[in-house]
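ARCHIVE CARD
CATEGORY: sequence design from structure
SOURCE FIELD: tokenized fold
FIELD CONTENT:
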């Protein structure tokens, strides 16, 4: 894993978001074992306590579970993974809407712009 940190956002949140994105796009699959706290901390060049916090928060959110003596694994609960995907998408859309409204675009203009851009995609 390689990650370039933004000094305006706590590192543990950036690592959490990075792992979540990897799960959503399928680079980390349900049931996969995550690297040990020490291994990931070494790889990312962060304090092991930071990675430990990341794993605790991911478990609190239901994205991971820990098996004592075996490690931390990604949940196999498809509903949790789908909800994570929807939440992340909503966050992106909310930021987009906020930023485009700052440019004085109205709802109809935003929809037109989105349709134009989606048309370019060829999907």
């Amino acid at each position: 894993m390689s990650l370039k940190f933004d000094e305006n956002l706590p590192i543990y949140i950036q690592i959490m978001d990075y792992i979540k994105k990897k799960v959503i796009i399928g680079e980390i699959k349900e049931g996969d074992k995550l690297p040990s706290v020490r291994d990931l901390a070494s790889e990312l060049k962060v304090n092991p306590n930071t990675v430990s916090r990341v794993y605790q928060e991911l478990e609190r959110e239901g994205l991971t579970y820990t098996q004592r003596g075996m490690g931390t694994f990604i949940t196999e609960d498809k509903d949790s993974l789908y909800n994570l995907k929807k939440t992340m998408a909503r966050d992106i859309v909310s930021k987009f809407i906020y930023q485009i409204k700052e440019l004085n675009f109205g709802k109809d203009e935003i929809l037109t712009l989105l349709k134009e851009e989606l048309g370019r995609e060829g999907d």
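CARD ANNOTATION: The longest strand covers residues 64-67. The mean pLDDT is 94.
SHELF: design records, drawer C
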